[in-house]
Design brief:
About 5% of the residues lie in helices and about 65% in strands. By secondary structure, the chain is mainly β.
Length: about 210
């Protein structure tokens, strides 16, 4: 009886499909990299991300990124005595943005290696943007804060070497924004429209 049970167990083990997904040895990963987005001011964000595997195929990610840009702004100064025009620095143009991301990823292939392979993902992003520009002879002072909540869709591939990961993806971001009216004959026709832009990321990670 015992011999038959052992024989049945051995045959069942041999009959297991060769592409059975192994359980992840490491269920967490931390990443550093670059996130590219075209919404708002269009930026490349330096980013930090954390990933947690719920199962061999499914993981959730959360990340934070930011960007800062500044450059001097000049105004024209006319000298009535000499008739010459010079340029005087009046301040700095500043752009600051904070990016928060969340995403669920599903790994399609290969099936045997956890944390590696082709994946698809979807999630929400929260973007805070701040613009500042000083007053010049040809423009007024500009200061504005905008908030975007894009829905992101991604497809990408992740390579694994030991506990190191290289992850890259590309896709589309969908945001709602105010429509711009160019036709003075149709006042009051504004509203909200879906704005579609491209997004991508490239990151290096470490499993733990």
């Amino acid at each position: 009886m015992l011999a038959s049970l052992l024989a049945m167990s051995a045959s069942a083990a041999l009959a297991a499909p060769p592409d059975t997904i192994a359980r992840p040895q490491f269920r967490h990963a931390a990443y550093v990299g670059v996130h590219s987005a075209e919404y708002g001011g269009g930026s490349h964000y330096a980013s930090l991300n954390y990933e947690w595997w719920l199962s061999p195929r499914v993981s959730v990610r959360a990340g934070i990124g930011g960007v800062h840009r500044s450059y001097p702004v000049y105004t024209e100064v006319f000298d009535p005595v000499t008739g010459r025009v010079s340029y005087e620095e009046v301040g700095q143009h500043r752009y600051n943005s904070l990016l928060l991301t969340s995403q669920v990823r599903y790994f399609l292939w290969p099936a045997r290696r956890p944390a590696a392979g082709l994946f698809v993902g979807a999630g929400l992003q929260l973007v805070f943007e701040e613009f500042q520009q000083p007053r010049t002879s040809y423009s007024n002072y500009v200061s504005d804060i905008q908030v975007h909540v894009p829905l992101s869709t991604r497809i990408g591939y992740q390579l694994r070497k030991g506990r190191w990961l290289l992850s890259g993806s590309t896709g589309l971001d969908f945001t709602r924004r105010d429509e711009v009216q160019f036709d003075p004959q149709r006042p009051g026709q504004g509203g909200r429209e879906v704005h579609v832009t491209a997004g991508s990321d490239l990151q290096v990670g470490f499993l733990f």
